[in-house]
Amino acid sequence: xxxxxxxxxxxxxxxxxxxxxxxxxxxxxxxxxxxxxxxxxxxxxxxxxxxxxxxxxxxxxxxxxxxxxxxxxxxxxxxxxxxxxxxxxxxxxxxxxxxxxxxxxxxxxxxxxxxxxxxxxxxxxxxxxxxxxxxxxxxxxxxxxxxxxxxxxxxxxxxxxxxxxxxxxxxxxxxxxxxxxxxxxxxxxxxxxxxxxxxxxxxxxxxxxxxxxxxxxxxxxxxxxxxxxxxxxxxxxxxxxxxxxxxxxxxxxxxxxxxxxxxxxxxxxxxxxxxxxxxxxxxxxxxxxxxxxxxxxxxxxxxxxxxxxxxxxxxxxxxxxxxxxxxxxxxxxxxxxxxxxxxxxxxxxxxxxxxxxxxxxxxxxxxxxxxxxxxxxxxxxxxxxxxxxxxxxxxxxxxxxxxxxxxxxxxxxxxxxxxxxxxxxxxxxxxxxxxxxxxxxxxxxxxxxxxxxxxx
Length: 456
Known about the structure:
The protein is 75% helix and 0% strand. Residues 1-13 have low confidence and may be disordered. The termini are close together. α15 (334-353) packs across α16 (358-367). It has 20 helices and no strands. The longest helix is centred in the middle third of the chain and has 33 residues, at 284-316.
């Protein structure tokens, strides 16, 4: 195991402030997946997409609450990967860390391509040049002190949050006939096949896709570790973040369904633009392009940040090369940032050169990873809370209601989603590829553990 680097401690002058943590927590979960990708979810499930968003939101609320209580009870370990390691051992720590890094590297490459396609209408350069430029730009931002990352993420997230609040407010005025010709709300909602036109299996199988758009809350717990008061910031974020994120998603998607019939939503086109065009808002397309670009830049920024921190943590535990623990004078893990940016660039190139083979395979392998990661957080919570109960410290540190019933119910829900994915032909390959990737990663962990044991 590599020795911890003494430069890893972030000084208050270069660290993140409370306002950074709050906005990273809220804005980190609101990406282009909401502004554009939600159209595919609405088309696949109809009005029942609200139920899917509610179920995913409940999962995020519970997982964040569990993670927050573990961090407050045993502060200073690092990211959630180290709490999984403490509860389940080095092999699952290795597996969860590398799976999570892989997931965000695929996101990094995918978002770089999405941003390049968006920029190409304004900057007439090849997509591969623009995608490399975006990754290089965010690499430089992360090379600076963590506070620079926090400031950039704060303003990018503020654009997204303000846009959603403004959309919901204008949509509510339109629905109550404060302006415009009026809208048949009830007919839009249930007049095109009912509330669940494609059945419950479609709702369950779309959950991983929706979780992909809503995940990212756990980044805040990592970012809080680089602030002057990590324990207070983690406790503050995890208590309310899941609820706020769920309300943001439910309010905005519900407003879309009230303003326009769900059957008129086209996958690949922003449902927000469709709704704003219906309300007669001028310049809707251009405004949404700016918001989506800010969302993509924010996602790239967060992806670069979290991949570098997880990679550094893996190196500290001996699960990655030791040189990745090096940090600059400003406490930025520049070697880990460089490796992650190169990996993200390769993913982006695979999207250009082999979109139907290599890139499609990478997307399938990473598609359900976050479900497995969240399951490990839940089981780590169960393990650590039972240990606290045996030690007599449970009442001081843990307050989650209906323990352990709600934990087991959460795990049962994840299993149900995987079964629904296996039943649904469109999602079956993603489920199988995710499970296969996890098995391979665990086998690698077992192999390296056996090698280390022989050497010892």
